[in-house]
Recover the amino acids of this structure.
């Protein structure tokens, strides 16, 4: 029978494999929002950042959690206020996405 440690390690490896794809989805949703200005793309980003902010630290990616929490706060504010991002918010969203991509890109 596999130990709990082995199962946790398998889950961590699976999470690590799927994480880059999740970040690319986030980046893609942002690009689509910039092009189309449809809030459904921000809503998709909000859901992804919510999930990653909770799971990142659990699976060994505390920086991913931290960056996603910040991004989530920005996106939530925009959706609640029903407005597009201003230039500072847009810059920070793009910086966060870049930081996330660097966190999950093998060096």
């Amino acid at each position: 029978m596999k130990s709990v440690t082995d199962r946790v390690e398998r889950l961590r490896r699976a999470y690590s494999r799927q994480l880059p794809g999740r970040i690319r989805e986030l980046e893609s949703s942002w690009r689509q929002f910039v092009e189309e200005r449809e809030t459904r793309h921000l809503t998709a980003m909000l859901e992804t950042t919510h999930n990653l902010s909770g799971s990142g630290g659990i699976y060994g990616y505390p920086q991913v959690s931290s960056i996603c929490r910040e991004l989530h706060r920005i996106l939530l504010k925009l959706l609640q206020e029903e407005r597009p991002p201003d230039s500072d918010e847009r810059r920070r969203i793009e910086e966060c996405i870049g930081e996330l991509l660097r966190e999950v890109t093998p060096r």
